[in-house]
Amino acid sequence: MRSRRRRRVIIRRLIIGTAAIMVLVVGGVAAYGAYLYHDINQVRRSAVLKGTPAKTKAGTNLLVMGLDSRVDENGNPLPKKIYEALHTGDQSVGGLNSNVLMLIHISGDGKHAVGISIPRDDYVAFPGCPDGECHGKIKEAYGLAADQKQRELSAKGVTGQAAYQQSRDAGRAAEIKTVDQFLGVHISSFIEVTMVAFYQFAQVVQPIKVCVKENTVDTFSGADFHKGVQEISASQALAFVRQRRDTHNPSLNFTDLDRERRQQAFIISLLTQLKSADTLLDPTKTLGLMDVAKKNIVLSQNLNTLALVGIAEHLAGGGLHFYTMPIQSFGVVDGQDVNLVDAARVRATAAQLLSGKPAPKHHAAPADPPPPVADYTVSVTNASGIAGAAAAQESSLTGKGYRAGTIGNGPTQSATVVKYNPADKAAAHALARTVGAGTTIAADPSLAAGQLVVVLGTAPLGGPTSVPTAVSGTGGGRSGPPVTALTDINSGGVPCVK
Fold first, then answer.
1. Same domain, 300 and 396
2. How far apart are CA 2 and CA 4, in angstroms?
3. Counting CB atoms within 10 angstroms of each CB, which of 10, 49, 124, 255 has the fewest?
């Protein structure tokens, strides 16, 4: 009887502890513990996705947002000692950028689960153009919309906490819509965590075992790690998931994508630790996790106990794959360093990963070079029913060198088609390959030579010409995987990353 009771306690706390891992890095399923064993109203909730079921036949699409804010969820400054421990500056630094964006997908039948990290500096289209900005880094949608809402409310005489919380909800809604459009998925629920929540959770469970490939130091984040496996404190844990440079050895050439893989490795390492250590048998620590969740986590209203149990059980059960979306290249837009991305390939890759099928190999383009893209003007018609799809596609194509044409909406249709003047057939084929597998071409004599039109349909694009091969996120030797590669880290053990 005693052994059976002990087993129930271990299982219960394993689910709580496993869920807490998401909070430690990207924010929030630890709130599951607060929901299940304490007053449900003690965890802050948002009505942004009101009326949206957390789970459908297609499964669960949970967006985890980690903010770089140096204030609490009420906008108040943090204690000085926490700023010193965070090594990130005080409340005057940072803002409401979503520096961590991770989609957790669990299939409708519960047979597979994936985590997809989106690099924070991916240059994307913003639905609705918050604060007058129609394009920017994907992390910025939150802050832009929050700022716009704050000014609108101020003009109406609404101030204080009422204005602040409404502004935060506007930011959440904008970030969700931006990710929804970028990945081509329907976000069904969300969890938000601030930087201080990560630090406080890590304080509860420290020390934490991690592994890096090389000795590395970053005086900006406070990172100072030696090659191999090591145990780190809460303050070092924050540096581990934030490091994006090496100030002693710049040749290591850290990128935002390396930071995404650090976050994934941290989740996996902590899962391994919590399953094998006495952390789960320590009621003081599990109550500590719950206490942090009540103060610094925000959940969508539809994340009820049942939904959170399902997510926690999948994390605890193993077999979860963490992917990092690739980029095309690094670039500069309006003086800002950004990640240039292929929006069509991103959506095709996301659709492939969520389907549960392995990512296919990417076949090389034909040997004969296509016509120069700069010779062609491309217009985009949105017949997909997805708001903002045309703007996102146009942005992707101009980033590849095509001249920008017009964007607009058209009657819904299934197929994605490239229309072209009969003299531009080769260019149409090249553009179709760029847009994604499944794209067809159709001659249209009414178009002038050098004019191409992409009509986006409802059918998802995919196939060997649009989805890259997944490579190991722990591979690539000293330099790590290339930024153009889709990377995959399997759960289990302590992954050694750049």
1. no
2. 5
3. 10
Walk across the sheet containing 451-456 and list its strands.
Answer: 403-409, 377-382, 451-456, 417-420, 440-443
> Residue 230 — very low, low, confident or very high, per pLDDT cuts 50/70/90?
very high
Q: How far is CA 15 from CA 24, 176, 316, in A?
A: 15, 26, 6
Domain assignment present for 309: yes
> Are 399 and 315 contained in the same domain?
no
CB 46 within 8 A of CB 300: yes
Domain that holds residue 404: 373-456
Q: Residue 172: which CATH number?
A: 3.40.630
- Rounded to 5 degrees, φ, ψ at 491 are -75, 145
pLDDT at site 252: 83
Find where tokens 């942005």 sit.
395
Provide the CATH number for the domain around residue 416: 3.30.70.2390
SS3 (DSSP) at 480: coil
* Identity of the amino acid at 177: K
Higher pLDDT, 250 or 121: 121
Q: How many domains does the chain fold into?
A: 2
Q: Is residue 377 domain-shared with residue 440, that is, in the same domain?
A: yes
Cβ atoms of 222 and 233 within 8 Å: the answer is no
Strand pairing report for 451-456 and 417-420? antiparallel
What pLDDT does 362 receive?
40
3-state secondary structure of 59: strand
For the CA atoms of 477, 480, 482, 488, what is the dihedral angle to 10 degrees?
100
Same domain flag for 316 and 405: no
Of all helices (H) and strands (E), which one includes residue 149? helix 141-155
Per the CB < 8 A criterion, the answer to whether 444 and 420 are in contact is yes
Euclidean distance between CA atoms 356 and 376, whole angstroms: 37
Are 187 and 285 within one domain?
yes
Backbone dihedral angles phi then psi of residue 61, each to the nearest 5 degrees: -120, 95
Q: Looking at this protein, which amino acid is placed at residue 447?
A: L
Banded pLDDT at 386 (limits 50, 70, 90): confident
When mean pLDDT is compared across 116-125, 309-318, 421-430, 461-470, the lowest value belongs to 461-470
Section 443-465 average pLDDT:
80
Q: What are phi and psi of 78, to 5 degrees?
A: -90, 165
Is the same domain home to 66 and 171?
A: yes
Residues 6+ apart with CB under 8 A from 310: 55, 60, 106, 110
Task: Give me the DSSP letters along 439-477.
Answer: -EEEE-TTSPTTEEEEEE-SSPP-STTTSPPEEETT-SG
Rounded Cα distance, 416 and 460, in Å: 9
